[in-house]
Amino acid sequence: MKPLLKSSRLDQVGITASIACAIHCAALPFLITTLPLWGLSFLAHSWVEVSMICLSLFIGTWSLSRSYPKHKKLLPVVVLILGFALIGCGHYLIHNLEAILIPLGGFTIAAAHFINWRYTRSCTHK
Question: Which GO terms describe its cellular component (predicted)?
């Protein structure tokens, strides 16, 4: 029986979600004044950002936990943790660099999925 979502698909979804999160966090400060004109003011609410972070955390954890037993490489896990650490630092510790750290964290999470995807593709056994 085939698994519902293969690890490579999860990584593709994770890359997309992480990049969307990074773009959202990077562009929001510039677009915040025009969002109400477009009817998109809901994007400025904190629940949108928390939802994106939770979705990325869920997909990242699920994807890496499914593929780690195959390739047994720690690099994707370390990069994923680093990405969430950057987001956490931007939110809670270094507020002056929030606009840099949070998008950087999103792109780092996308990189973790990409590395995981590459390792999973290069595995010779299942």
Answer: membrane
Measured between alpha carbons, how far is 14 from 18 in angstroms, rounded to an integer? 6
Rounded to an integer, what distance in angstroms lies between the CA atom of residue 126 and that of residue 109?
25
Name, in order, each residue with C-beta under 8 angstroms of 107's C-beta and a sequence gap of 6 or more.
18, 19, 22, 83
Lowest mean pLDDT among 5-14, 53-62, 90-99: 5-14
End-to-end alpha carbon distance in the chain: 14
Residue 17: partners with Cβ closer than 8 Å, 6 or more residues away: 52, 55, 56, 59
pLDDT for 37-76, tens place per residue?
556 556 556 777 788 888 888 888 988 888 888 888 999 9
Q: Which two tokens stand for residue 40?
A: 């998109």
CA–CA gap between residue 92 and residue 98 (Å, rounded): 9
Distance of CA 56 to the CA centre of its chain: 4
- Distance, CA of 64 to chain centre: 12
